[in-house]
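Question (not urgent): is this output format expected?
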Amino acid sequence: MLHPVVLSGGSGSRLWPLSRQNQPKQFLSLIGDHSLFQETILRASALPDTGAPVTVCADDHRFMVGEQLQAIGVANGAILLEPVARNTAPAIALAALHLVASEPDATMLVLPADHLIEDVEAFRDAVARAAVLADQDWLVTFGIHPDYPETGYGYIDRGDALGVGGFKVGRFVEKPDLATAEGYVAAGTYAWNSGMFLFKAQRYLDELARLAPKILEAARAAYAQASTDLDFIRLGKEAFAASPNDSIDYAVMEKTDRAAVVPVSCGWSDIGSWSSLWAVAERDDDNNRYEGDVISVDTRGSLVRASDRRMIATIGVEDLVIIDTPDATLVARKDRVQDVKMIVDKLKQAGRQEHLFHRKVYRPWGNYDSIDMGERFQVKRIVVKPGGVLSLQKHHKRAEHWIVVSGVAEVTCDDKVFDLHENQSTYIPLGSVHRLRNNGSEPVELIEVQSGNYLGEDDIVRLEDVYGRS
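Got this back:
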């Protein structure tokens, strides 16, 4: 049986301001109704003789992964929580150890969560060819036929043919300059390095033992300390943190003598920038891609994405990217969007929050939207989904006022438990132990007004939490 392993990491910087650290691009619906993560899961789950997907993700993203799997009706094979980020080689090792624990002969199809594949049939055919080579103990990567001399990707030069349309890997090469990339495309033997792999789980572990033993040692120790938390598997933090921070290419694929590549042309993109999203999206006769409420005059070759809160108008512009969100707007030339990380770096240096969170923040119980803020106050619109319950908590530096807009909220405040109905309100004094619960079948919407000398999210002392948060 083939086991999809989806790597769901990322810092959320390349598609800022739409992507953020707490919601990187794989969880966004960029093309179509599903997120890139959901599209990856659905595409892999539709392959023949395939088991439930295993996801490796950051702890902060665990509820997003669980909810997005539930939304598309796909059971998870496991959700492994990386205690710290340690690149792809250790992450894949965790998944391999998990698979061989119950199925020693398991074959794993490793997929980044944030890639787009438009030709699903070509992808299925490539996977079938790669599976034949994996049965022969090859470690297979997928090489994307280069449509143009891209300088943002690594390349793979193929060697001797292996049958079923596969080849030995001649060599991996780093991201080239334009002249070198043009030479690679002209040569006809080079492919873009897609970051997708297929091999037997035990075969990968064997090569790690030989080529990168410290990675395997750390992964084994972390997995030996694994514990179950709701639907998630937590790994030993200190043990995993001791692993080298290496990619699978560097740790294994560039060093093994069993690396193979299956070339494929499947409409692949890693959507690594706003310009690459513009390139794969449907566009109008003026080469524009509009999303949301956009009015344009004499606009060409541009990507304009309006938020749901306001209209964007453009006049006489070309080759621009304009991305609007409730708390930040990006305006950039299309040929400069790779530099969006410079904005993210400036936000970090200034100690700001716009690279970390959207104004609307999702939690396992629902979401909140910070609709106004001043020096000693903050106003939030909070939505608690049916069955959702906030942690039992208290604050040292702020008091809160709650006004229910719709639904019925069960409120705990110190030794009192009472229902709060539509148009009713209550006061949560500073230091009071409190909680809000939605026992109904409809969402509870409320307005929360915080007041105090400090309003940060770290002024939360959780005393009890059904979602296992500290």
